[in-house]
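I keep forgetting this: the sequence line spells out the residues, with the fold written below as integer tokens. I include a record here:
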Amino acid sequence: MDVSERELRAMTGDLDEMHGDLFPRFRIALAEMTAAWRDGVEGERSLARLRAGRRTFLRGGLVTAGVVGGGAALAACGSSPDAASAVNGTSSSSSTSGGSPDLTVARLAASLEVLAVNTYQTVLDAAGKGALGTVPPAIATFVTTAKMQHSDHMNAWNSALIGAGMQAQTAPDPHYNKIVQQALPSVKTVVDAAKLALTLETVAVETYTAGSALVTDKKNRAVALSIAPVEAQHVAILNFVLGQYPVPDSFIKTDMAASPNDLTEAG
């Protein structure tokens, strides 16, 4: 694995900056969703407090034109018939979220974020024990950064679910958790860990893209699409670590998108 520490550090720095710009917008969009779900005074007050601190959260900057363009491309992908079919199972959606496809997407997203946090932590623990061999410092920094970002996303989704009167999603996506658990015993090197992480990040990007086609409120699509670019950047960096072209596909696919049907496996 021929990785430039200098380039990887720079890419991780750019990733952190992107997350710093997009995550506050993600939280505001989630607050709007929660307020709409609850349609109550408490939700509106929470939204008002977030908006009052918006300038501080956004650091006085706007999302770059490139990220906005990426979001538009995601929206185009998310509205396709293939994307909708990738997150199929409307009857399952109703049973898992009280009849709201938007809440089902929120639960599904939270379950994937839980899985990502758990998996990255397992990798960090293995690296700390020397089970992965020599781990370049820049890679350790990226893994730590990615885990923290997934934790932010997980907590934000769960705050929205709790605000909507539901329980927090603390269990990982059952379908992909089985795949991860089966793969972990074979993770012996940094390359193995990067390949597993790439699979999870690809699932996340495709699920956010496909999920945007399932939600019933157009405004709610901004929730998934405001955070998807960060997940896409995780994919690009992991491809770089593995010596692959960072953006191998011109368009985001939805073949690996998680399905709301996964949630029924949890019982």
